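seq:
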Amino acid sequence: MVTRLRLTSVAVFLFPYVCFADFSGPVISVLDGDTIEVLHNHRAERIRLSGIDCPEKGQAYGNNAKYAASALVFGKEVTLQTYGKDKYGRILAVVLLPDGTNVNHTLV
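struct:
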């Protein structure tokens, strides 16, 4: 019983590290200034740029935020440094361009 409890505890603490790993892929969609979709294993993964908060669609400057993000990443290969998921199930990540540009910092 104690062994099972210990194994469960270890699995819970290690779960984020096992499930999330850095990966690369092309940006196939920009939903708004801080949310993109990246193709990974033939599947679109919704990515929330970690550490920034842009105006949403319908808010003041929301279109400007989406345009800025699109100009930086749409159609480009990016590398993601992932940090888990947010409450909406999006992968939290720092997005890097091939030249080393940190997209999160650039958008801020």
